[in-house]
């Protein structure tokens, strides 16, 4: 994990594998900042949707013992929202390096749209 100091606060950049391990150990909460349409096409199981268009840093769950990690498609939007969270008063926030694209490239499990059924199915790539 990379750490960057932003005005005395901490911005962390996690790899897909680091996030996967933290989620499996129930040590992280993943917030997806993509649009509802992007989320519906595919997302990490258990992630919470808070689209960038409606993003409210004050509405995020409290970090507590679980780390908050933001994710988008490529890390551009999640990094922007991470800076917004720090500006809103949080002492630290993390985001996923490479976004959902990196998650899929790492062949980690996710939920994807199943067009023939009109539903969703779990994709286990490991």
TrEMBL record:
Pfam families, sorted: Rhodanese
SUPFAM superfamilies reported for this sequence: Rhodanese/Cell cycle control phosphatase
Sections of the chain in a coiled coil: none
Gene3D superfamilies in alphabetical order: Rhodanese-like domain (3.40.250.10)
Domain Rhodanese: residue ranges: 24-112
InterPro entries, alphabetized: GlpE_sulfurtransferase, Rhodanese-like_dom, Rhodanese-like_dom_sf
PANTHER family: FAD-DEPENDENT OXIDOREDUCTASE, NITRIC OXIDE REDUCTASE FLRD-NAD(+) REDUCTASE
Protein name per the record: Rhodanese domain-containing protein
Source organism (scientific name): Roseovarius nubinhibens (strain ATCC BAA-591 / DSM 15170 / ISM)
């Amino acid at each position: 994990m990379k750490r960057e100091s932003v005005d005395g606060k901490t911005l962390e950049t996690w790899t897909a594998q680091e996030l996967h391990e933290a989620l499996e150990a129930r040590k992280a909460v993943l917030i997806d900042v993509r649009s509802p349409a992007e989320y519906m096409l595919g997302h990490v199981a258990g992630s919470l949707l808070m689209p960038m268009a409606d993003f409210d840093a004050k509405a995020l769950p409290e970090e507590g013992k679980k780390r908050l990690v933001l994710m988008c498609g490529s890390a551009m939007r999640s990094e922007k929202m991470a800076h917004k969270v720090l500006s809103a008063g949080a002492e630290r926030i993390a985001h996923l390096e490479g976004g959902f694209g990196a998650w899929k490239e790492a062949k980690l499990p996710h939920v994807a749209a199943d067009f023939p059924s009109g539903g969703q199915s779990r994709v286990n790539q490991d």
